[in-house]
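// run 5 | inverse folding | seed 20
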């Protein structure tokens, strides 16, 4: 796993995150505006967009732009990323500004959404630091770390950070978004081939907490 900052010369914050063969480029962009429905409320907004390059997978995928609309999976993932980031940002302290984090998958081998969240936090944090250096915001707008990891039950065994081969055959597939302090932001768990028990879910959660602690340590090293 690696987090490489400063990938973009233009974006206020950027990070290339690698989980094994999965690579996601995350770039945070600041805009001096908020969505229309948020105007005049004295707080900002953090959102995300997600996409996969045509050859991020084994076979070329058609660009969603060519079909004129985003797919349901794409919309679900970018909303997941946005919710995870907003959970650890003081939106009132941000002021009436919007930060959009673009997460583009360069190479996919499972866990693209969880890698995107982990790297997006670094890009967002660097964007907020950029703003703080220019006295646009005060300190501590970022309230905590947030990272995410996938877990699953493969051949009867709980597995952390599944690759594509494991994910495609897993009986249970789960994604956990967890803050640095250990609070749960989001849990997605699905029985792909067989149902799972409460005990198995708790085992996956235990694995996820272990993985997120390592990811948060990696985030701290990256920004240190």
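// decoded
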């Amino acid at each position: 796993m690696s987090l490489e900052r400063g990938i973009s010369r233009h974006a206020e914050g950027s990070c290339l995150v690698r989980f094994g063969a999965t690579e996601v480029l995350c770039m945070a962009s600041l805009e001096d505006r908020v969505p229309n429905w948020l105007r005049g409320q004295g707080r900002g907004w953090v959102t995300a967009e997600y996409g996969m390059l045509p050859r991020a997978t084994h076979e070329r995928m058609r660009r969603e732009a060519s079909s004129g609309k985003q797919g349901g999976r794409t919309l679900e993932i970018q909303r997941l990323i946005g919710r995870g980031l907003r959970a650890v940002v003081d939106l009132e302290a941000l002021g009436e500004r919007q930060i959009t984090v673009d997460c583009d998958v360069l190479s996919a081998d499972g866990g693209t959404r969880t890698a995107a969240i982990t790297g997006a936090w670094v890009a967002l944090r660097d964007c907020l630091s950029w703003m703080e250096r220019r006295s646009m915001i005060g300190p501590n707008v970022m309230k905590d770390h947030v990272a995410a990891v996938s877990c699953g039950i493969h051949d009867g065994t709980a597995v952390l950070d599944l690759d594509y081969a494991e994910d495609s055959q897993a009986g249970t597939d789960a994604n956990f978004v967890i803050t640095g302090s250990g609070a749960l932001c989001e849990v997605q768990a699905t029985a792909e081939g067989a149902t799972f028990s409460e005990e198995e879910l708790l085992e996956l959660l235990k694995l996820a907490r272990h993985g997120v602690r390592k990811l948060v340590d990696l985030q701290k090293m990256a920004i240190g």
